Amino acid sequence: MKVRRYLRGSGRVLAFVFIASVIWLLFDMAALRMSLNDVNSQLLKERVIRERELLKQKPRVTELVKGGFKHPVQRVRKRWDEGHFNVYLSDKIPVDRAIPDTRPEMCAQNLVHDDLPSTSVIFCFVDEVWSTLLRSVHSVLNRSPPHLLKEIILVDDFSTKDYLKEPLDKYMSQFPKVKIIRLKERQGLIRARLAGAAVAKGEVLTFLDSHIECNVGWLEPLLERVYLDRKKVPCPVIEVISDKDMSYMLVDNFQRGVFKWPLVFGWSALPEEYIKKHNMTVADPIRCPVMAGGLFSIDKKYFYELGAYDPGLDVWGGENMEISFKIWMCGGEIEIIPCSRVGHIFRGQNPYKFPKDRQKTVERNLVRVAEVWLDEYKDLFYGHGYHHLLDRKAIDIGNLTEQIELRKRLKCKSFKWYLENVYPDMDAPLAKAEGLVCEQLQQLVFLVCFCLLQSQYSASLLHDSGFGLQPCDNTKPELRWFHKSSNSALVG
Ligand SMILES: [Mn+2]
Q: 316 alpha carbon to ligand 1 midpoint, in Å?
């Protein structure tokens, strides 16, 4: 009992000592920790100061670039020239991305016939960017009813990039509908399209650019128009995929393709009165005087009845004018279908390489078109600054017999009819001088010419005063008659 009591008494003391030491230990640890923190923060401060000093000596970006780091902006710039748009970003975006359905509201409710013709979609490309080409193909595969899509034909116009050879064959082999044709030498867009059309098995040909994205329900409204009338040539509304950030952007309603002198393609809104007069809604087909050329559907048989494209046209340029005049003047119609929408990457610079001089190729093509289709209005084409093309010794436009024969055989209407009925808001004044009054100074040292209309020049014959009348002669720069009109694409 005594022992137990003793223990009880000393136990209290022991417990007190124990608790006191624990408290002391805790205090001690706290103090130690605080002092360590002090040291740490001191060290940290010193380190920051040291690093700042270092950064001042060597700029950070340079260090990072040396270490292989590249800012995205630098990567974008580096890869821009591969396609003249943001190739870097295109490669980062899924090849089957979703895009906003931009159709006018009523389009989704539109019904189409259930026995529409099938189509072959033809893409021609040369050195197209991998991700953009794939996105174009996937958008067709994903957004076209399978029974309407006969096949997709990829025409490789002699690309130089290795990834468009075996890797493309391998990738596309997983899609039985995709066929690839390889041209053995560079043919240009026009002949590449003809090569694609020649093997197409669908009843309708649908030509598309290789840097596009077809939108929801794009195909049915096009085929419906061909179904209703095989001579209708429908084009989708071409929307804009930004070349900078790849975003999908809407375009204005009621836009149609037109031309300005000297046969320059452009867009123009339908006149307000026309929309009111015809009670048009935003979903109605729009009569289109000239197609942009890149995207359209056409009945295959009708395409060949029209002689396809003039095979004498070279590479690229003017072929949209040729087929447009031909369709309208020979009984067909070109329409823009607002319920069909396709996004297209518009590039600031055309990366399309021409085997020969670009300017000369396009001009030569345009002369062929003007000579075959423009009748007396070809004067307006030459008169808007293309006089030099009249010199056939300098420019060989090739043989036109077949094209002129074709126009006769198809009993096509005149260009005057086209202007009056298809493009009545076009300004095409056929004013023409038969003579130019020239002032002769200092024995033919130079000539100053004044253009006068036929009615004016007889009164202006003033030989005695040094003026003389000379017939117009387009081969001589000083005796050329220039046209000027409000529908001129030329500045000034
Ligand atoms: Mn294009």
A: 12
